[in-house]
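Here is one chain, start to finish.
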Amino acid sequence: ATRGFADIILPPGLGERVRGLAASTATARAHGAPFRHALFHGPPGTGKSLAAARLARTAGLDYAILSGGDVGPLGHAAAPKLHALFDWAEASPRGLLLFIDEADAFLGRRHAGMGEDLRGALNACLFRTGAPSHAFSLVLATNRPADLDPVVLDRMDEAILFPLPGAPEREAILRLYLARYLGWTPAGGAPIPKGAGRDAQGGRGGWGLFGRKSRPDPITLVGLGDADVAAAAVATAGFSGRELAKLASAAQAAAYGTPGATLTADAFRGVVAAKVAEHAERRAFAGGAVGGAGPAMVMGV
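Its structure:
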């Protein structure tokens, strides 16, 4: 059950915990044992949703996702809808992994100003998870675990932190996405996981219906080597996996903005510098700063 995580780049300790959870979930399904519930927490873009979906697939469970932000607008219908959702989960013939993203949106701490609708939704979830389940595994994801109600935290058998990737993980992630978006292959170093380049822009472009190309033109890479990717991994300290994917996508866009869809090493370094500056700007926004980030912030990411 753990082989399905081969192309997900996680720090060694985290990877072992997620693979262990997948193995125990598969064992529970095979032997009719109760499923475990888990909390995935950490900064945005660090792989929580991807890991949950892959966990369900490798363990052989059905998979469903609910955004916590969609519960509040349901108003008085929130609690009945959640009960119906759990009824449906318990009817899954294979077992179900129910993934609730942004769980703090409706499973937050109870307080005097909490509306009755949200309180009812919270109570419905607590009621349906009060006993071990042989039908479903609940996985919550949040960037703000301290905001969750203590009883919700008590329901979780595992609490797994998804941190921002370190330099080795950033380089591996960049390799994966550059293969996927640019068709890049390394001259040496660590291999790219099997299947990572399935979306890479290789082969001959063709034309589909209504004059649209069925496949984009291949990208020509000039001088882009392992050293450039390693340098980019160092420069992108503090980036999430999602930000690294956007960097690779920006490099693809830069290539298609040139005649012949060509990306040079210098152009790639320019994309990296722009994304590093953008990352610093986002940090400034999150910190409440007014105006753009100065050079010191750009260099300090």
